[in-house]
Amino acid sequence: MVNPENKKLSPDIKGNSPLLSILKLVLGLLILSSAASFWKFGSYLSPDSLSYARLSEGFPYLLSSLSPFYPFLLSQPPLSLIPLIDRILVLNVLVFGGAIWMVVKIARKAGDYFLLIFYTFGISLLSWWSFRVIGSAHADSLFYLLLLLWLYLFVWGNKGEDYYLPAIASLSALLIWVKLNALFLIPFLVIWSFIERKKGWLLIAGTTLLSWLVYQWAIPENILSYHLGDSPFPIASGLDAAPLFYENFATWMQVTLGLVVSDTLSQYIPRMLAFVLGIAWLAFLVLFLIGHKNKSGNKRYALLLFGTIYSLFFLGFQQWSGFREVNYRTLFPYLLVVSWSLWLFLLRIKRPKMLLLVALLVAGHTLVGHLLLWQREDVASLVEARSFHHSDLKRNIVTLLKGKRIEIRTDYPEKLMLSYRDKEVIRLDPAFAFINGKNEPLAPDKMLEQRQESLNSLMQGTAVIVLFRPDSFWKQVAENPSVHRLIDGETLILYSASLPK
Question: pTM here?
Answer without folding.
Answer: 0.91
